[in-house]
Amino acid sequence: MYMMVKHIHMTAIALSFLLFVLRFIWVMSNSGMMRQKWVKVVPHIVDTVLLASAVTLCIILTQYPLYNAWLTEKMFGLIAYIVLGLFALKLGKTKAIKAGAFVAAVAVFAMMGKIAVTKTPLIL
To answer: Which UniProt keywords apply (predicted)?
Structure first.
């Protein structure tokens, strides 16, 4: 069960990140792809699978945010990643702000990956 959920989680991470990068490219190039129905729906489906698999892994491993420091830090990283993603894709007023938010989001994503692999918090 654990390996199946872990693989689903890792696949959802890869798809979510890939879709984020792709949507950022489309936003920066003013592509009409951002108006496609699937572009508005699929990322939410992928992110729902990602969140559900994360919660399932927490339950299977009995590792919980606010109890395990590495998971708490990863959770705060996720919140930062979501906010930065909003600025990169929607809320940024200029392309420079969007690009800066994108770079910061990618850095936070990498930090979350390092924390997940090492199970060691970087800050807390």
So the answer is: Membrane, Transmembrane, Transmembrane helix
